[in-house]
């Protein structure tokens, strides 16, 4: 009888350890099992050069989300960016979404400028006011080869 008690205690200890490792893996890996504290919206851009998944989304200088995915719309070959926005941040349908660069040659991120409309974008909705990034290489090329007048 005493042998089974020790084996049961060791089994419970190992099971508790595995549950702790699973919990830490989910939390540190920022995986979501039961849904997250955010919602998805989409934005369409002519050019998303340099923007990657996981890039930050900022509003008024505060990080409010991340870029979840970037794809190409099959009908018109325009880039579609999926943004994961925190649930407590509400976006209006006239918010302006633009791709910016941190510093002169830093990473790209998405900046959202709030609009004044009272109509809020629903989860899964589309933000239509977008500004693509400025390609520094093209800009330098225009100066070098005299494209600027």
UniProtKB/TrEMBL annotation:
<dbReference type="InterPro" id="IPR052336">
    <property type="entry name" value="MlaD_Phospholipid_Transporter"/>
</dbReference>
<protein>
    <submittedName>
        <fullName>Outer membrane lipid asymmetry maintenance protein MlaD</fullName>
    </submittedName>
</protein>
<dbReference type="InterPro" id="IPR003399">
    <property type="entry name" value="Mce/MlaD"/>
</dbReference>
<keyword id="KW-0472">Membrane</keyword>
<keyword id="KW-0812">Transmembrane</keyword>
<feature type="transmembrane region" description="Helical">
    <location>
        <begin position="6"/>
        <end position="26"/>
    </location>
</feature>
<dbReference type="Pfam" id="PF02470">
    <property type="entry name" value="MlaD"/>
</dbReference>
<feature type="domain" description="Mce/MlaD">
    <location>
        <begin position="38"/>
        <end position="115"/>
    </location>
</feature>
<keyword id="KW-1133">Transmembrane helix</keyword>
<dbReference type="InterPro" id="IPR030970">
    <property type="entry name" value="ABC_MlaD"/>
</dbReference>
<dbReference type="GO" id="GO:0005543">
    <property type="term" value="F:phospholipid binding"/>
</dbReference>
<dbReference type="GO" id="GO:0005548">
    <property type="term" value="F:phospholipid transporter activity"/>
</dbReference>
